[in-house]
Each structure stands twice: as structure tokens, then as C-alpha cells.
Amino acid sequence: MTAPPFDPAALRAAEYPWMDAEGPYLNAASTGPMPRRAVAAAEAWAARRARPHTIPFEDLLGTATVARRQFAALVGADADEIALMPNTTYGLNLAARGLPLRPGVVLTFDGEFPSCVYPFEALASRGITLERVPRRDGLPDEDALVAAIARPDVVAVVVSWVQFATGYVADLARIGAACRAAGAFCIVDGIQGCGVRPLDLHALPVDVFASGAQKWLLGPWGTGFVYVRRGLLEVVQPHDVGWACMTGTATDYRRLTDYAFDFLPDARRFEVVTLAYHDFAVANAAAAVLLEAGVPRVAAYLEALTGRVVAWAQGRRDVRLVTPADPARRAGVVALVPPDLEGAAARLAAAGVAHTVREGAVRLSPHAYNTPADVDAALALLDG
Ligand SMILES: Cc1ncc(COP(=O)(O)O)c(C=O)c1O
User: Fold this and answer.
1) How far apart are CA 313 and CA 323, in angstroms?
2) Which amino acid residue places its CA nearest to atom 2 of ligand 1?
């Protein structure tokens, strides 16, 4: 059966029937609202979880298998390069602790979300320091980063694919290529782009890519994944080691005390413990919405929606557009500074337009369920 074509209005009617009455939700960059089918999956799995003996073991393993497969499909990876994680930061910590980083410098952009900062600052006792490349005109300075990567003391780079506050989309091909040329690892926080921008990790020089599913993937809190490039699966030494990552015990609980220290051959070696199967079942239902719609089509739709904000801001002398206007450099996040920031945010909130304020700017983050009218309503309120 072929999937029906992506129709934002139909998606909204089927999965977000509350939104017309309650007001536009323009805050996927904070938390993605779960589609109706994911809520149904949550209810069904809660009922099953109440009687765990009725859930075949194969259903649990199958849920995890589907999750790895779907996340892989969304980022252009193979399922055996995907480990299920509770969030983005766990995957970034896997990179920080598990990659064989020699003493030296890890580079990031100033202005990154703290998940790109603290896990690497925590490596000081190993002689590793984190250096933040200063911003240029408020945005990441990619030229300066790429120039700095060539320094002999640089051992890794960690950047967001899409920045949380500016919406800036990093050129992963360029940054990754510079890392390869310098023998440095390339680590990416993907949560602000994953699901709404096409990605082909196999075509990119990216070593580790981490994302939670609670934002653009519309899934529940506590779900996410990390991609580890195939060639690094046995190079990354997991800091956390448990029982669920070993070949003998991951899928057969009958001989747990054989104690064969033998990591699984694929990325499941980084899944240390019992997974939140019911949450991943919900995440699967949610991610299916995007897979059915098609990420390239969602991306094109979001480009048009955020383009309305960009055009509006560019037409106003009193509004500062934080996000780059170039569609190649933005995804679903668009940030702008209106003349009266607090007043504008209060008007949006009073009118029921879900948004947020980050780093001194109003951040709007529409998704596939939003309409041009949603965005225009927000702009009219920003106008005062
Ligand atoms: C760029 C970025 N990374 C990470 C996170 C969150 O990390 P985690 O999924 O680990 O909670 C956010 C948002 O909260 C984010 O915007």
C-alpha cells in the first residue's frame, strides 16, 4: 500500500483535532505535541503494561527493532548503527566518554545548547578542554570553526545540526570534511532538525549523531537515539556497561549467570539496561507520521511556513531577524526580536499561541500540523 500524499490539513484534522479550538502550537522546538495515534498507542501500552504477562517477549524486542529501524530511516543510517537512548544528552555523553579522545581541544560554537558543552567540559581531568568559537553577528562562525579545526591540538568538534536559539543550520558536510582532514571526530546534536529535514548520515563525515524524540519527532519524553558510524562501533568504549548490551543476555534471559563479557556486535552494545519499551512504542507511532508524510515534503512545507516569518521580519525596520534568511540555513526554528519583546510574548500567550522566548528572542517553531494562518496569527500579535 502506498502512503497517501502529505496533506497538512488532513494531518491536523486526524492527529491534532484540538488545535483549531485551542490555538496554534508553534513550539515544537521545546516539546513536540504527540499525535492522536501516539496517544492511542500510549493508552494501549499502559493497559498492556498493567498485565505484563500478556505481552510476548517478542513484542518488546520487536518494538525496539521498529524504533531503531524508523530512526535509522529518518537519518539515512542502518538500524544496526542506532542505539536507543532516553534523550540527546546521553548520546552526546557516549561520544564524550566513549570515543578515544587524546588530550587536546574539543571545539564547539558559542551559543550552543548546554548538552554540547558540559559533557565535554567534564573531560578536563583527561587533559581535554572545550573551546567555544565566538559568534559573528550573533550566529555561529563556521569559517572560524573550520579554520580552527586544522589546528593540531583539535581532537573533536561537537555542534548542533540546527541550533536551539538561532535556528542556524550547520553545514555538516563542510564541518565533517574538515574534521576528517584533521583526524578529529565529528559529533552532532541533531534534535532540532531530526524528522523535519532530510539527512543522509551515510553520505556525511559525521561520527556520532544524537537526538531525542520529544521535539520534532513528536514522541514522548524519555525516548531518543544515538547513531554511531559503523566503523566506530567497536572503537567507542562505553562508559556505562550493563547486562542488556552483551551478546549472551540481550535476547535470552535463561543463562544470565554465564557471565560472558561479549558486547553485541551492533549499536545495541550501547543500550545498557531494560528499555522503556512502552515509550518507544509511542515514539514509533509518532515517528510514523513523519515517515508517512515524507521528511522532504515536511521540510519544504516548513520552509514555506518559516519563510512567512522571515519575509515579515525583513519587511520591518523595528524587528531583528535572528535566524538566517537563507532557506539552506534554517529549518523549523525561527527566532526574531520585536521592539517590545516581553509585550509581544505576553500577547502571544494571552491569545493562546504556544511559543517560547530563548536567549532574548521570540522563538516560533511550526511543524507539519500548522497552517499559514497559524503563523500569520502569530505575526499579527507580534505586530501589536
Ligand atoms: C540542541 C538541543 N540539544 C538537546 C536538547 C535537550 O536534550 P535532551 O534530549 O538530552 O533532554 C535540546 C532541548 O531541550 C536542544 O535544543
Assistant:
1) 10
2) 113
CA 63 to centroid of ligand 1, rounded, Å:
24
52-291 has which CATH code? 3.40.640.10
Using most ligand atoms within 8 A of CB, pick from 30, 162, 189, 209 the residue to mutate for ligand 1: 189
Q: pLDDT digit string (tens) for 150-166?
A: 999 999 999 999 999 99
Cell of 102: 587524546
CB 241 within 8 A of CB 252: no
Looking at domain 8-33+295-382, its CATH class is: alpha beta
8 C-alpha to center of ligand 1: Å? 26
Q: Which residues contact 32 (CB under 8 A, 6 or more apart)?
A: 214, 215, 216, 217, 218, 219, 286, 367
For the chain, which residues make up each domain, given as ranges? 8-33+295-382, 52-291
Q: What's the pLDDT at 1?
A: 54
Residue with cell 536567549: 359
Q: Is the CB of 108 under 6 A from ligand 1?
A: no
Model confidence, pTM: 0.97
Mean pLDDT of 274-285: 97
Q: What is the distance in A from the centroid of ligand 1 to the CA of 235?
A: 25
15 lines ligand 1 (CB under 6 A): no
Count of H-run helices and E-run strands, the chain: 12, 11
Whether 197 and 299 have beta carbons less than 8 Å apart is answered as yes
- pLDDT category of residue 255 using cuts at 50, 70 and 90: confident
Atom of ligand 1 nearest to the CA of 162: 1
Question: Nearest 5°: phi and psi at 172?
Answer: -65, -30
- How confident is the model over 307-349, as pLDDT tens digits? 999 999 999 999 999 999 999 999 999 999 999 999 999 999 9
Report the percentage of the chain scoring pLDDT > 70: 99
Q: Which atom of ligand 1 is nearest to the CA of 90?
A: 10
- DSSP character string of 188-214: EE-TTTTTTS---GGGS--SEEEEESS
Q: Any long-range contacts for 10-14 (C-beta under 8 Å, 24+ apart)?
A: 11/289, 11/293, 11/368, 11/369, 12/369, 12/370, 12/371
